[in-house]
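Narrative of activities, Objective 1.

The group set out to show that a structural description can be obtained from nothing but a protein's sequence at a throughput compatible with the screening campaign. Below is one input-output pair from the validation batch, recorded exactly as produced.
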Amino acid sequence: MSREYMNPDFNLASLGRTLTDPAEQERMSPVYGRDARVQELADLVAFENSVILVGSPGSGKTALLERLSQWIASDDPRLPVPLKQRMIVECDHTAFQAYCTYVHDFETRFRTIINKCRSSKAFLLFDNVHLAAGAGAVDGNEDRTLANMLMPYLGRRDVMLIGTTTPDGYQALLRRSPGFAGKFVKWNVDDAGIAETIEIVRSRCSHLLARSRLTLDDAVIQEVVHAADRFYPSKAFPGKAFDILYEAASRKSVRHDGTSEEPSFPSVVTSEDVFAAIQRQTGLDARIVCPKLLLNRQEIVECLQATVFEQDEAVEALTDAILMFKVELTDPDRPVGVFLFAGPTGVGKTELARQVARYVFGTEKRLVRYDMSEYGGFDGIRGFLGDRKWGSQRDFVGEVMARPFSVILLDEIEKATREVQNLLLQAFGDGRLTDARGRTAYLANTIFILTSNLTADLYGTGRMGFSESSEGGHCSGPSSEALTKRMRAHFAPEFLNRITKTIHFRPLSLEAIRRIAKKELVRIAERRGVRLRNLKLRVTPKLDEAILARGFHSEYGARPVQRAVRELVIAPLTASIAAGEVPAGSQVELDWDGHSVNVALVPAA
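Output recorded for this entry:
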C-alpha cells in the first residue's frame, strides 16, 4: 500500500487538478464573461471565508471558479491582495480516503493534507461538497465523518474550502450535517440570462470549434440559445446552450473528419445541424423542431384520423395544439394543452392519445400512461408521487423528469382522489410540479390527455348508439347541457377551469365500425409472423360481416371488434400455420360458412 501521504514532502497536486498551475491553465478552455460575478466571488474568498457555490447543473459554477483561477495565475490587477500567489486544488472526499485501509490511515492522511494546506495557504475545491457529509463513517459512526473532522479547522479558518453543489445537494447537506453547512458562506449561482449566454457562447466558440476546424455564424449562436431556452426549461443557462452546441459540433466534426485527406477549409455548423441535434435529444419530429420546415394542418388532421374515426372535434383540438407548439404560440408556463376526453368506452379516446404520440414523437413509447383508478384510495396522493413507504412502484415527478417531452395520459381521471386532482391543478396551471423531495418536473413540453367515462350512461344502451334511420350516420346522444352538467357535478370548478378543452366523444356509427375492422385486419398483415413467412391474406365479405356481427356491443364500443378479429381471423390462421398447412409465400383466404372459419390456399393472382 502506498504511504505517499505520510511523506513530509507530500504534494497537494496528487489530490487532483491544481487549477492555478500554469500547465493546467494551458489545458483549460478560455473563460469569458461574468467578470462582475467573479469579482464578487474573489472578494468573498479574500476574507478567508469558506464558500459554497449553489446552482443548478449547467449554471456555470465550475466556469466561474476556473475564471477565478485564471485571475490568480495571471496576477490579474482586479485580484484582491490576499489571493495573490494562492493555490486552488480540486479534490473530493475520495481523495482523503485513498490508500486508507484502516481508520488510523484515514486520520493520518487527513492530518497530512490539512497541515499541507495550512502551510501552503491552499484552497481546497470540493465538487459536490454535500457528499462529504457521510464520507468516512464507519459502522454508522457519524462522529468521524470527513465533514465533522473538517469543522474545527473551518471554524478557526485554518483551512479554506470552496465547495460546489446543486440546490438539492445543499438541502441534503443541511439535513445530514447542518453544522458543516453552517461553516460555509452560501453563494448562489443564478442562471445566466439569454443576452449574457449569447455573449458567453460567442466568446468561447472560437476556441471550442477551432480544434475541430469548425466555424459558427453569429445567427446560429442566437438560434442555439433561443432553442435551448424553449426546449429545456428545466436546465440552466449557459450549460444547456453548450449541450446543444457540443452535440451539433460533434456530429459535424465526425462527418468532417471522415475523409482520408485533411480538408483545406473549415466546415460550418449550420442551423440545420443545431435543430438536428435537438431532434435527437428530444425525440420530437423534425417538422416541429425546425422553424424552416413547414407543417400542413390538413396533414396532421389526416394522420390523426387514420386511426380515430368520427371524433372530428377532438382531432381538430389536438391539431391546433400541435401547430401552436410548432410556431411557439403556446403559453411557456403551461403544458402544450390539457384535454379532457369524456364519453363511452371504446370510441377512440386512448387511441387518439397514442396517435398524437406517434405523430409528435414518432413512437407511442412517448405516451406516459397512468390508470388513475389506482390512486382512488386514502393513500392515492402518496402512490401518485411515488412514496416507497406505501409500496408505490411509480413516481410521477420522476417519470416526467426522465421524459420531459411526452404525451401524458391520465386514464379515468374521475376515479382519482380529490387530493390527486388538486395536485394536478399546480401542474396544469403553472407548468411544473414539485414533490416533497424538492424535485421539480417541468411540463411546458408535454400534452396532457385526461379520459373519463362519467357521461357514458347518458348515451343509453341502444346498439352502438347509431340512428336507425341512417346506418352510416352519426349517432344521436344527450345534449351538450346534460353532458356539461354531469361533468360539473363531479369535478371541482377550479379543476375544470384548468382544462384547455373538454371534448365529448360520441358513440361510433356502423361505418366507423367497418373501418375499425379493416384497420385491425391490416395490422394483422404487419405482424412479424405474417411478414417473415411472406403471407398474403384475404378475408371474404362473408367473414367481414361475421366480424361486424360479433364485434357489435351496446356497452363496450369498438373493443369487441378486436376480440372478434382475434377469434375469427388470428386463431384459425394460427392453427393452420402451426399445423404446417400454410407454407411460406402462400396466399391465404379466410372465409365464413355460417358456422366456422375456413382457411384455404388460393393461387397467386
